[in-house]
Write a structure and sequence with these properties.
Length: 275
Amino acid sequence: MKKKLCIILVVAIVICAAAGALLHKVLPREPVSVSKYGIGSELDPVYLTAHRGGNTDAPENSLPAFESAREKNFYAAECDIIRTTDGRWLITHDDDVILHFFSFGKLSEKTYDEARKMKYSFDTNFIKYRDEKIPTLEEYLNVFTVGDTRPEIELKSPGTEGLEDVVKAIEERGLTEKAIVISFHYESLQKIHELNENIELWYLLHEISPEEVQKAKDLGCSSISAKYQNVTAAEIDLISSYGLDTALWTIDDPKVVKEFYDLGVRNFVTNRLGN
C-alpha cells in the first residue's frame, strides 16, 4: 500500500512539474529590463536582439512576435529561414515541424501551400494566435519597413541555392542598409556579399580562432556572433583586434549580460530581456 502511494505521489509530482513547465512556456510574460541592472546608457547603449522575435508575447518566429519586437523597440529581431520544395523561404527555426506546429514531417520537404496550413502548437500564447500562418520571408521583412528595429535573418541551411530571392526581397523593400544576414555557413555569406555588398553580415561561430575571424574580416563582416558560454575575455579582445564587434547568444540573465557588457560586448540576443 505504501509503495503504491509513493508511486502515485511521484507520478503526481511529475505531472505537476510538466504542467508547470508547459504553462511557463505558453503564457505571455513581461521582459526583464536590463536598464534596472545598470546595463547601458544613452551615451553607451546596449543593443538587444529579440531571439526569434518577441517570443514573450507570441509564438516564436511568428508575425505577432516580430511585430511585438518592433513595438518594443528592440535593436533587431532575429528570424530563421528554411526553403520549401517549391522555392519559398518560410520563417521557422526547426526543419522538423512537429517542434512548433500541429503537423509532421520536414518543412524543407513540404510545398508552400502545405506549410501554410500548419497551426502553431505549444508556444507562447499559441491559442490566441491559432489562426496565424507560418510567415514568408517577405511578410517578415514587411514588418520592418517602418520603425527602427532591424530584421536579422539567419540562413539555416548550407549552400547558396535561392539566396538571390533573399537579397531581392531585402532590396525591394528598401532594407539593404537596415537588414542583417547571419549564418554559420561561410559560403552562404559569401554569396549574399556577391549579390549585394551593402548588406551587413555577421559570421556565426561555434569556436573562435584567428583564422575564422580573419575570414570574417576579409569578407567584410561587421560582427562575430557566438554562444556566450563558449566565449572568453581573450576571444572578445581577439575579435576587437580585427576591428569587428562581438554579438552573443542567447542570454536571458541580466547578470550575465552585465558581465559581458563590462568586457566590452554591446550586442546580445535574448528571449526574456528588454531595454
